[in-house]
Design brief:
Strand content: 15-25%
Helix content: 40-55%
Structural class: alpha+beta
Number of strands: 27
Largest sheet: 8 strands, mixed
Radius of gyration: 34 Å
Oligomer: single chain
Distance between the termini: 40 Å
Amino acid sequence: MIRNYLKVAWRNLWKNKTFSLLNIMGLALGMTCSLLIMLWLQDELQKDKFHKNGSRLYRVMENQFYAGEVVTYPSTPGILSQHITKDIPEIEMASQILWEESPLFTVGDIFEKEKGRYVNGDFLNMFSFELAAGDARTALKRPDGVVISRRIADKYFPNQDPMGKIIRVDNRDDVMVTGVLKPITEQSSLKFDFLMSYDRWLKTNEWAKEWSNNGPRCYVMLNKNADIKKVQAKIKGYIKTKNKDSNVELFLQPYEDVYLYSNYKAGLQDGGRIDYVKMFSIIAVFILVIACINFMNLATARSVKRAKEVGVRKVVGAVRYSLIGQFLGESLIIAFLSLIFAILLVFLILPAFNTLTDKHLSLNFTDPLFLLILLGLTIITGLVAGSYPALFMSSLKPVVVLKGSLKFKPSATFFRKGLVVFQFSLSIMLIVGMMVVYRQIQFIQTKNLGFDKENLIYSPIEGDLGANFTAFKQELLNMQGIKSVTSSQADPLQVGSSTQGVTWPGKDTTKTILFSQNPVSFDYLATMGIQLKDGRDFSPSFSTDTSNYIINEEAAKKMDMKDPVGKEMTMWGKKGIIIGLVKSFHINSLHESIPPLILNFQRGKENWGQLIVRAQAGKTREALASMEKAYKKFNPRFPFQYYFTDQEFADQYKGENVVSKLANYFAFLAIFISCLGLFGLAMFTAEQRTKEIGVRKVLGASVFSITAMLSKDFLKLVFIAALIAFPLAWYLMKNWLQKYAYRIEIQWWFFLVAGLVAVAIALLTVSYQSIKAALMNPMKSLKSE
């Protein structure tokens, strides 16, 4: 019987080639999108799940309270890990992990900056980063030990055993290779080419030893039987036991959640990359549903062609469930054929998809889970697509269909139209979403940051540059392509230092306010292109400026000063005068509001942080050549590195750009798949009304009137779909925009354009078949009468 069903199914597919091709193409494209998104989702959801102790690993987080506001940071005191294991017995191990550092490695004549982390000795015992050489239990216990990647080992010690070899760091210290890392899996969100002793870093950073300062991250591993609720209760007020004036409460975030759930608002978890996971999961379902609806519509519309077959089968004894099984089997065959085409398409698209998403995805047919997913996708698609046609066809009465008087009930016609409305509603929602995402990304990339990011170059101040900065700056100013030069602790796009240690006359002592702060040198405002609203910049003409301050508008608001210039303020116990008020400018991501900012002068004999250079317009190449020449003269033992501020700004929103492009592609595919179904339905409708069209032409109807008659019913459905999609799209995209502190307004014309695009595409799709039917010779359609 199964063999007979397969024969019948194949004959029907071959007999109706056009409709079979439309069904297979629609389902194949839907499956292709779903497979690509599934591979991306699988990669995202597997991040950081490979650690053997994963369920026991946590990141320590801080909630800081300021005048009724709660801000959440992963930064902690630099000595937290060494105390917390002693004071909280449920914590078995802890490790501070520093932000990514790029020290200079030198071995003989080879020197280059390498990227890595400073960590505590138990780091490799907590996390499952395996060593190809060395002992993970002891490799980081030595203060002068370093664990390096195979890439670094091959670069500095080619054809040698690197174990025990010496590497010079920053032309200052020597470290010994105590381990070689195996390649880090792509499932890890934490990447590094070396690991060095955090204790060694801590010795030269006294500020990190104070309980009132935060910066390094801290990760802990709980005992196997630890109760997380009890640990959370113990750790909450831990900082206050060390610093009674602290406004900090600690909590633990599961390490496996860090990658996907990184955003916090008002002390509560507020999404992160998980938002994109949810978004693309919904898109995958939408597109697959659209493809399934195509199948339902086409199969139901063509049921009249197979009605007599159903009638004959019922007359000779076929029961309903066997007919349902037959039609579901046919849809499963089509789903299987579609899967084959989908896999071929994925193979072709995957390299470009990997380039776009910066991933290394692949089709792994040796993975049982992946094969199970493919099987599940095929069965679900086949059953969903074939469910309604199977139920409808199996319900036909033999007496009616064998008399040739089969007519669709109003309910069946209404259901089919409802499917078209639902299909186009999803498509229009995707179009609106695509437009909003694109406009928001464009808004971010073109927004006035409050400073001029064009022709702005920055480079790290290291080695001998800090001590010789004045001479170095003067050298640069006399060189070609250089307009102005300054220095800053932070780079132009990331001011990470903040303090609550600010007072001024009349301050409400009951309120704690957090200020961002950035030590800068002379000519900072001019070089950055920051607008000065009142007062002046730091100047060598005023010796007292080393103790003075410049603030932004947000700081003036927090300090409740309308005319702050000339007013007194104190930071970290150092009293000075506010000499300048600047227009607020962005110092971090546009996801965040501009904070109150204090610019203080870089005190001491050395400049540090970042060299910031404004190149003359159109002379960037000359400016870089000048910078490199001066750099080699004043700091020959370090390689010259530089960054373009505008490019770094664009890189900050690389993830959003990827989302925007993917949204564009998937929206296009959703519309295309919808049009395949509409094309098939239009073709079937024209076929069903062939004689009617012939009669109308004989009676004098024009091609235009016939085309309009056949098209209007479909266009009505698209209009209804638009009315349903618009409020849903508005609600969803409004919620998405809430993630940005600075965002666009959803304009009415977004919906107009989306609706017109959907109508235009639907009209073009339907018109082809309508015009073709209208141009047919009426003699051919009427000769059988």
